[in-house]
Amino acid sequence: MAEPILEVTGLVKHYPLTRGVLFKKQIGSVKAVDGVDFTLGRGETLGVVGESGCGKSTVAKLLCSLERPTAGAIRFKGEDITRLSGKALKAVRRNIQMVFQDPYTSLNPRMTVGDIVGEPYEIHPEVAPRGDRRRRVQELLDVVGLDPEYVNRYPHQFSGGQRQRIGIARGLALRPEIIVADEPVSALDVSVQAQVINLMARLQSEFDLSYVFIAHDLSIVRHISDRVGVMYLGRIVEIGRDAEIYDHPTHPYTQALLSAVPVPDPEARERRERIILTGDVPSPADIPSGCRFRTRCWKAQRRCAQEVPALAVPEAFRGTGGPAAHASACHFAEEAAPVTPAAPEEPRPDGDGPG
Ligand SMILES: Nc1ncnc2c1ncn2[C@@H]1O[C@H](COP(=O)(O)OP(=O)(O)O)[C@@H](O)[C@H]1O
Ligand code: SF4
Ligand SMILES: [Mg+2]
User: Fold this and answer.
1) Which tens digit of pLDDT belongs to each residue from 15-50?
2) Rounded-to-integer distance, Cα 157 and Cα 116, Å
3) For residue 72, how many other CB atoms are within 10 A of its CB?
4) InterPro entries recorded for this chain (predicted)?
């Protein structure tokens, strides 16, 4: 793997759960992020996927220092950035920028596009002197495929895809090294999603960026990710190179998510086994003991309730060097039954074979 630019270890964010208005009493905690580990290589894209509520946005905010973790560390180029303040914090924030999910609500409707894209320069005037800002903003609009003459327009004059381009231009303004994109295409029409993803892929090489690309659907991150991490209830349950995750998943949750991904080939669609997950996602305020996926896992056994499975290469695959040898937090990790091949043609009973 490339030299790490971001190393995340034991990242935790718990929100206190309180009761009472005047005398707030803590009655528990929402374990939004509950022990996340991963490394992002320079120039790499890590896809992070999981159902709504599993803690993806909280991870994004922690990475961008918009929230402080309850525990754990985030290292940016080797330096722990989780306890910084003042100037040092400001400098790090400049380098790790976020692109938000919803282009309809994340842009201030009363600001012009020029002001929106140039706003980061107000906080970091050292990046662009005042007299140079308009030109910089126009350059950024051009880079994301918008007409530089649009600087004086307002967000409502743009389509969803164009607004997300504005959000991306703003994310680029400070020339960050890392962009954390929190479901950047989830609110867009399917036809527009690919355009925005292609734009982000192009910008990655042009600006030498490393990406954390968040999505709730595995199919969206496939083409842009070098590696993919699958989250469930505040943790990564499986992580590996994209071919390892898409073609050789060993965690039951990933296998279930993949079985629901649309397959264009009708024959393959017929043959594959659809895994329907039963039961609801448990509350992050009340996480099951042992393996947190066990209440929905069809393979769960007694051990699963007693022992937390570590996110590591499962013993069965250790030393094999094959694509199943990637980290998976399951006591009984195994490769999914391969897609059942089409039934062989039945020989005809009358022996009237070919030839
Ligand atoms: N500020 C907060 N206070 C309390 N609970 C929160 C807060 N932010 C998020 N949560 C809870 O943490 C969990 C994870 O949320 P989030 O990170 O937004 O998930 P995702 O982005 O995967 O949908 C959810 O149950 C959510 O309700
Ligand atoms: S550890 Fe047990 S409950 Fe968890 S995913 Fe594996 S088999 Fe299922
Ligand atoms: Mg979210």
Assistant:
1) 999 888 888 888 899 999 999 999 999 999 999 999
2) 14
3) 18
4) AAA+_ATPase, ABC_transp_ATP-bind, ABC_transporter-like_ATP-bd, ABC_transporter-like_CS, Oligopep_ABC_C, P-loop_NTPase
Closest CA to 275 of 331, 342, 337, 341: 337
Q: For the chain, what is the total number of helices (H) and then of strands (E)?
A: 11, 11
Most confident of 15-24, 69-78, 311-320, 346-355: 69-78
Q: Would you state the pLDDT for residue 266?
A: 75
- Token readout for 13 is 């964010």
- Whole-number Å distance, alpha carbon 215 to ligand 3 midpoint, is 8
pLDDT tens for 210-226 read: 999 999 889 889 889 99
| DSSP 8-state code for residue 342 | P
d(CA 43, CA 177): 9
| Gap from CA of 305 to ligand 2 centroid (Å) | 9
DSSP string, 97-162: EEE-S-TTTSS-TTS-HHHHHHHHHHH-TTTS-GGGHHHHHHHHHHHTT--GGGGG--GGGS-HHH
pLDDT band with cut points at 50, 70 and 90 for residue 124: very high
From CA 72, how far away is CA 158, in angstroms rounded? Answer: 41
Residues with CB under 6 A from ligand 1: 15, 30, 32, 50, 52-58, 284
**Among candidate residues 41, 86, 80, 40, the one with its CA nearest the CA of residue 60:** 40
The answer, yes or no, to whether any atom of ligand 2 lies below 6 A from the CB of 304, is yes
b or e along 75-97 (b: 16 or more beta carbons within 10 Å of the residue's beta carbon)? bbeeeebbebeeeeeeebbbbbb
DSSP summary character for residue 32: E
Residue 189: C-alpha distances to residues 108, 167, 185 (Å): 22, 17, 8
The DSSP code sequence of 40-97 is EETT-EEEEE--TTSSHHHHHHHHTTSS--SEEEEEETTEE-TT--HHHHHHHHHHEE
Tell me how far apart the alpha carbons of residues 87 and 261 are, in angstroms, rounded to a whole number. Answer: 45
Distances from the Cα of 102 to the Cαs of 120, 131, 163, 246, in angstroms?
A: 19, 31, 9, 27
